[in-house]
Amino acid sequence: MNKNAGFYGETLPLTRQQDGKVMPIYRDAGVYFDDTGMRTERQMKINGQTFFVTSVFPTVATATPTEKIIKLINLDVMKRAE
Predict the structure, then answer these.
(1) Total-model pTM
(2) CA-CA to 26 of 20 to 30 Å: which in 7, 39, 61, 78?
(3) How many domains does the chain have?
C-alpha cells in the first residue's frame, strides 16, 4: 500500500447507485447527503503530514468538470499576460 499518496487500492470501495450513476464510497471516508448534494471527507497522510480532503458533489451542477478546468486555465493565462 502506498501510504504517501492516499492510495485507495486496499480499501475496496462500496458502490452506491443514485440517479442512474454509480458512485464509489470508501470505508475510510465520511459521506454526507443533503438537499444540496453529496460531500465526502477523509484524511490523507503524505510524508507524515495529515491533510483533510473534502470533495463536494452538488445535486445540480453549474458546469462540467471540463468547463471548470478550462475556466481555471484561462484565468491563469490571463494573469500571466498582465
Answers:
(1) 0.47
(2) 61
(3) 1
